[in-house]
Amino acid sequence: MIEAAKSGRASCRTCKEPIPKGDLRLGEEVPNQFSEGGVSYNWHHLQCAAKKKPAALKQALDATDIDIPDKSELLQTIESSAKTEKPGTFPYAEKAPTSRSSCVGCGEKIDKDELRVAVPAEVTTGSFSRPGAKYLHPGCAVEHTEQDPEELFEAIKANSLNLSPAELDVLDEGLQGQAV
Length: 180
What we know:
33% of the residues lie in helices and 23% in strands. By secondary structure, the chain is of the alpha+beta class. It folds into two domains: 2-82, Zinc finger, PARP-type (first zn-finger domain of poly(adp-ribose) polymerase-1, 2-Layer Sandwich), CATH 3.30.1740; 92-176, Zinc finger, PARP-type (first zn-finger domain of poly(adp-ribose) polymerase-1, 2-Layer Sandwich), CATH 3.30.1740.10.
């Protein structure tokens, strides 16, 4: 949702700077960690959200009846940022931004710009764990997830934001190649 900041005490989750009272902000509803079933909001400056949360901001802009200053500038930023936005729902596929990741299925490196499938994982850093992603080659994804190739493809396709039709075809072929 988009609203005017009520007090000026909230900070932007993207840039960590305070959001002044009266400035428009994007609120993302998240589960409240202190109340079972309760919700809380992560707040973002609109310009920060346009860069890091373009899909959420676009949805909020479409739903609001508030007059948004510089809306055309925000929409341009959303359009360019949407090309690199990570999906929030697993499983999804993307082109690997680097060649540092390895496939958890076969253990081999995933080359830069090669398609990879992301599935949920618990990432342990030091003394705590947080939700994260682990990556697979498309050919390893069916066996690792133990899902039907067609169902897995449809789920990945629905969650993948920036794949071209040709890349979706390559992904589908990779998933189907694992079917026995």
